[in-house]
Each structure stands twice: as C-alpha cells, then as structure tokens.
Amino acid sequence: MVYKVLIDRKVKKALKKLPNVDYLSVKMAILDLAKNPRPFGYEKLKKRDGYRIRQGNYRILYDIEDDIKIVKVLDVGHRKDIYL
Fold it and tell me: Among 24, 43, 61, 81, which is 20 to 30 Å from 13 by CA?
C-alpha cells in the first residue's frame, strides 16, 4: 500500500527554516509516511485530530485518510513549540 503524501503550505515554510542537519532527517521521515503511515513510535494525538511521529527534537503532525490512501502533513516543529 502506497499512500500519497500531501504537505501543507505552512509545513513547507517550516521545513525551510530547519537547520540543514535536521531538514534531511525530517524530510525523509515525511517521505517514509507514504510507505508506512503508522511507523514504529507513532501516536494518536489526544487534544487534536491526527497523529505524530518524532524525528530527533522535531515532531511531525499528520492525518491519515485510509479510504483514499492519503497522508496529510499538518505541521512540523520543534518539540517545545509544536503543541502550543
């Protein structure tokens, strides 16, 4: 099962602001969601809709639509700022 990954405009801007070292790992984690939208360590969010995965000090928030095979990346940010 291959999912299509949709990245919000807000996420694209946030990715551009990441340090180069973190940018590559976060980008690869997002692209890997196409192959496995529920990787090891993913969690369902409690106070909002969607899921999250960790990538170093950064968090990737996303939603899964299984019926149409789409993963929507909603937000990316540092762990201290992402849940505000």
Answer: 43
CA distance 59 to 41: 12
Tokens representing 70?
A: 């789409």
Q: What is the pTM of this model?
A: 0.91
Q: CA-to-CA distance for 78 and 59, rounded, in angstroms? A: 6
For the stretch 4-21, pLDDT in tens is 999 989 999 999 999 998
d(Cα 38, Cα 30) in Å, to the nearest integer? 12
Sign of the alpha-carbon dihedral angle for 43, 60, 20, 18: negative
For residue 4, CA distances in Å to 18, 56, 79 come to 23, 24, 25
